[in-house]
Design brief:
112 residues, alpha/beta, globular
Length: 112
Amino acid sequence: AGKMQPAEILFVPEVLTRPVGASVRVFGRLMLTTRQGFFFQLQHEDAALLVDATLAPLGYRAGSLYEFTGEVDTEGTEPVVRARISRCVDGLDVRMFQQVLALRREFLAAAK
């Protein structure tokens, strides 16, 4: 097994473009799916992503804001994040988070 990479902080549409095995941290509004177990749809703006939270079983609430850290995989042909860490982030100022993440990315790009 390879060394686990640090999770890249991404928005749902960006996760959809990452390769299988990429380590990601993503947040969005949790929606229920018709699948069994801890499979959920995570929505942010106009994009949706399937999350498998089997390794991070909590008392999830549909409509709440969650952050998941895990690896990109596929479920059939659909991208899925296999979450190893999850947390409820209700109350997060999403607009402020987006602004801070943009500044962080600028700083990291300039530091290279």
